[in-house]
């Protein structure tokens, strides 16, 4: 009986204590120290081979400081090839322009003329184009001269035929006059009929020869016209050919100019500089000769003036207990727990949607916790760095022991009633 009374008394006391005693609640989450305004990534758009490395992990750098230089051998060689081809094409264009405009000499661009005085290979290039200009001009002039001489010969031939024609026409006039006299004598029976027939045949012969001369003159004049058209066509074909070459060269020059701009930009980018002042973090390359992929993050710069914060992962089942402005306690597991106190923090940001860890497949919300400046930098010798792990305890409302113990039972009963 006494035992029963004691048991009832103990049970009553425990029940009363569970109903009255309050426990402080907290949501526990793991987090990481990050820069509030995010790290500044150092990347290269095209990548390449490391030629020189000027920083190491943890080094302090200033904004614009040279941190890395890519090997520029291939870039310089590519640029030199483009520049040389451009020089050759521009010199060729100067020659074609002179041919198109019919000038007596080529007008070499000043920069190429200057290089020609300093570089023998450029002078050789210019001399070659000048020689080609002279040779082509002579060839064209020779063809024109041949055709011109042909027309001159035809004109001289016409003059000779015309002289012969005039002579025959004079003979024809004499023959007609003589025919008149002979016909008068024949009418008087003073000359035989054979004499009249002889003169008639002579007149017919002379008239036929005159007709041949007229035809030869017309033929020669036709050949002159054809030759003159050949001269015109020769010049036209030449102009068409040169104009086509000019268009092709100008198109190629335009393409190479764009490639030169890209190559010069790439050469300027061999020097990789820090985007801002801070500390080198997560350096990827460590030796000369290492390869950087296009767009790869070579290193990160932790801004020295940016505040640090805690980025915590919150379980979806606990998100309803968190709110903006909620106080937290933060503990950094990298430091000794015996000498490192907990720091007070405040939740200032909660993600609107779930994120997913690609490695584990777990979903979580992200909470940003800002720790006061004193908490981070006033703790004697402690030095926080991005990436350090942290434990976050977000204080929730106080509950009695009975509420804590009976909550699972009530939740199960609610689910059972909904299912029924």
Automatic annotation (TrEMBL):
Question: Which example biological process does GO assign this protein?
Answer: protein transport
Name recorded for this polypeptide? Membrane fusion protein (MFP) family protein
Location of the AprE-like beta-barrel domain: 308-396
Main location group: membrane
- Quote the subcellular location field of this record: Cell inner membrane
**According to Swiss-Prot or TrEMBL, what is its membrane topology?**
Single-pass membrane protein
Of which family is this protein a member? Belongs to the membrane fusion protein (MFP) (TC 8.A.1) family.
Q: Where is the AprE-like long alpha-helical hairpin domain?
A: 76-266
What single Pfam family name could you report for this chain, choosing any that match? HH_AprE
Q: Which GO CC terms are listed, alphabetically?
A: plasma membrane
Q: Which residues form a coiled coil?
A: 144-171, 239-273
Ribonucleoprotein keyword on record:
no
Look up keyword GTP-binding and say if it applies.
no
The lineage's top-level taxon is Bacteria
Species name for this entry? Blastochloris sulfoviridis
Q: InterPro entries of this UniProt entry?
A: Beta-barrel_AprE (IPR058982), HH_AprE-like (IPR058781), MFP (IPR050739), T1SS_HlyD (IPR010129)
Which keywords does this chain's UniProt record carry? Answer: Cell inner membrane, Cell membrane, Coiled coil, Membrane, Transmembrane, Transmembrane helix, Transport
